[in-house]
């Protein structure tokens, strides 16, 4: 009888354990299946982690979906179009419905977004336009021409006398925005070059074209070929050093410098300040990076164009959520990318200098006062 009870007890224990294991295994399979089915709602590809601007964007994108049922994954291309395409393919495989992409190279990104479009994914170009393809649905951007105009107007407003040496610098020729920034700047600077306020110091192509109020893209490309920084502070230093070595002393003294963004502005400013024939300079910037705000407070950079990325991220994510919800996103204009007119939503820009740093960046809670000295 004892043997029977022992056998029965052993049978019950084994049966119970088997049932528990089966339940556990079944639960794991459901969990895995559920994760796979849910996928990623919004895929985001940013150009590099090496610039503070894009790292800040990463966190803001995450925050923008924090209270939503939708999910996102953010990948960085690290300045490589091949990596960018690989990132897009990775996100496609995860089932994204919307792709937000700030391309490293606007033309090269065409192949990547065409692959997304073939899968029925809505493509939003973020901050930088993707060119020469009809596989772009929307474009969320700051008014890039207005950025260049604001930079140039600052140089005009602060020019003293006539024949002020003007040093021109630009972003990467692979970035459509670099052309738009320069187009806006040229529209303001050219009349002041024509009337003798400024004298171009560092571009023979710009000198050749200085009587033209409007430049074709090819003409701008020739100038950019001489003054591009490729958005690289190190390259900006090399360019500035080369230009200062090449010019005569009458192209120094008190000068004006069109620098395309904050990273290059700091590098160029540091290079110019080390030349003892440069007495003072007015230099532009863009992006309101922390390091440049400190430079502005310290009088080492003159201004920056503040593009409130919080608004741009909000616009991009708002557009993505509209699409996911089955609604038509709001747009305010369009940009021709060489293949089609891309519907766009534009965000305004603000000039920041010493006098309004606190109001525009601290009072608006973009930065905290404790992050700076001498404020």
From TrEMBL:
This is Putative multiple sugar transport system substrate-binding protein. GO terms for cellular component: outer membrane-bounded periplasmic space. It comes from the Bacteria. PROSITE patterns: PROKAR_LIPOPROTEIN. The keyword Transport applies. Its main location: other. Gene3D superfamilies: 3.40.50.2300. It is found in: Cell envelope. InterPro entries: Bact_Solute-Bind_Prot2, Peripla_BP_I, SBP_2_dom. Residues 42-327 form the Periplasmic binding protein domain. The keyword tRNA-binding does not apply. Residues 1-22 form the signal peptide. It holds the Pfam family Peripla_BP_4. Keywords: Signal, Sugar transport, Transport. GO terms for molecular function: carbohydrate binding.
